[in-house]
Amino acid sequence: MTDNVVRLFKDPPTEEPTTPAPTLTLAPEPSDKPRPVRVFVRSRRAVVGAVKHERTRQAARLTVRHTSYVIGGTRVVTRRAWDGRTGARYERLLRAAEAAGNYEAAGEWEERLHRFRTERHKRRMDLLTAPQDMAKSAAIGTAGGIGGLIAIGVALAIATKDPSDVFTPLMALIELIRLLVVIVQMVWGPLVAVGPFLALAGLWAVGRQRATAPQWALPATARANDAGAPITPSVVVTALRDLGIAPLRNAIKEMGDAGAAMLGPIRIAGCGVEVDVTLPSGVSTEEVQNRRKKLAENLARHEHEVFITIPEAARTVRLWIADSGALDEPIGPSPLVTDTTMTADYAKGRAPWGQDLRGDAATLSVFQRHLLITGLSNQGKTASLRALALWLALDRRVEFRIADLKGVGDWGMFDGIATVLIQGPTDDHVIDATEMVEGLVAEMERRLQAPPGTKFDPLIGIVDEAQVAFMCPAVGDDKRPYGGSKATSRYFMAVRKVHNQGRAVDVLLWEGTQDPTDQNLPKLVREGAHTRISLVLGTESQARMALGDKAVDGGAAPHLLRQGLDKGTVVVASDGIKIPAGQPSITVRTHFIDDTAAAEIAQRAKDLRDGVTTLTAVEPSETTVDALADIAAALGDESKLLTQEVLRRLATANPGEYREWTFSDLRQVLEAAGAPPRKTDGRMVVDAGRVAQALAQRADETPETAAQ
Ligand SMILES: Nc1ncnc2c1ncn2[C@@H]1O[C@H](COP(=O)(O)OP(=O)(O)OP(=O)(O)O)[C@@H](O)[C@H]1O
């Protein structure tokens, strides 16, 4: 047939060998038996599933719980029995008193132990002769008893004229004894069978009552109720024991049940309870303070619900434990809002500011105290500072000069109350604020020079967001910077002066600052305030800046407040507020007065006043010093003078201004004027010629500058 085929291609491709068809193999029937590996996996899963199943867990919890009750109950009963028979109890209490450092109590327990041992010895000695005495007493008792019964029998026989009645009472007794034996024989069997179960039930009940089962094995309801459970001595002692401080744990174990001896009475304190804990020797109060979070968790509370402070008594910590969730409840409106007739008294009054943690009203006296409030941004700093100012504004004698270096209107309601109100964040506002504080200095100096006994109205300077002033880079015509914390820094120096001498003449400064650092809140400024207040802060070192080391070492912990949640909660270190004895600080939840309410209170303050014209800038104060001219004066007739000597003369002439000047401040001013100090014989001197030349040059330049 191939001959008849006409090929369409010249050289048709030779036929490719066809690929062999794939060999199809019959797939084995899926076997019912899973492969060994799958068996393993499946069984593992099944086991894990079964173990994790809630019912299994419940069963495990049930078994462990009830077994623990029985074991724990046995332990408790054995211990009680052991305690009853031996001096173990006295020994334990002796050790507890020793561990708590209470040597007086330890001596008492030792004496009791000694007495117990002596009496026990006497009892044991008595036991040696007891068998003979018992045998004798038994013989005498039996003979007497039989004799008595026979005597009754004789009397009976005489009465009945029947001699057999002589033994009737004796026989009746014998019959009674036989009856009792029969009864005991009948009851004994069931008693022996049921007895162990009754004993077991008794042990279980004791274990249950003493809660000897582990926490996780308790029923879900009991576990859930644990959060916010009432604070009992046992809860506090257990929480302290499990704090992870080895000497504390060992001491509490030594004390056993007597661990509660460490605790003072648990007192209701506001929305929580308060208890003093005297720590055993070897445990420092600081160690407990450092474990606040763990302590709070052990007490089934959140960290912010437990406060640890150090009262006066040695080796003692004071725990304040909030009722669960109580701190998140609002504290209600300010009396300033609710009582529209309220007035204030700068000298004798106290600002109704908020509530302390015990729920008592927290009132602050602002009399002759400089004030500093710090905190992170947006936590209620301005609101709490403003609340104080609003109260004080209700004393018509008080003059306010206010610089708000944020300037979004938080202090706007003081327009018409304050004599100066600067609002804004720019360098120009800082310059105005600096001049405002320098104005306070001028007023302070005027008052200081007044005849003794002169009365002045209180003058309160407020600088909110004072960090803006400290960080301001602007430099004045006299080359002195407005910001910074050098002896030439104008804002800093003005604040220092008010801090140093303003109190006595009622010229006070209240500053609010944010997120403190050494740069935006210099140490001397922090320490110049008498009332130091802190809202939540980021770190402990910031807390130290805000409140001082003493307060933080004594338990003040604004860094442990919750950002965003504890808005308006402040920690205060001041003698202007009632603080529990021995504590260096107190935590206060301030009343929030919003802008509308603040405006209403401000209106009441305005109504009390005769109408105040508020300035939005101040005339530069005359107190601004001319450092270069002062240096020239200090040089006197000398052609050159050692820098130390120049500094000394400056400080003598004007201590308020120059006492804190260092060599670098002097050099800075001289260099800026073009008359830097030079070295002569290896020592730095100020050249009088150069200074005079700089002064002359400045005098030449001044008219030009003025003309511009
Ligand atoms: N006592 C308070 N109780 C509850 N909430 C408050 C309290 N004080 C302030 N707040 C809330 O916090 C917000 C911020 O307050 P405020 O402006 O006083 O904070 P601030 O710390 O001055 O902020 P910043 O310095 O960043 O401007 C308020 O708008 C208010 O909602």
UniProtKB/TrEMBL annotation:
Pfam families: FtsK_SpoIIIE. Gene3D superfamilies: P-loop containing nucleotide triphosphate hydrolases. Coiled coil: none annotated. Residues 16-29 have a biased composition (Low complexity). PROSITE patterns: FTSK (PS50901). ATP binds at residues 375-382. Keywords: ATP-binding, Membrane, Nucleotide-binding, Transmembrane, Transmembrane helix. Residues 354-544 form the FtsK domain. The chain crosses the membrane at residues 138-159, 179-206. InterPro entries: FtsK_dom, P-loop_NTPase. Residues 1-34 are annotated as: Disordered. This is FtsK/SpoIIIE domain-containing protein.
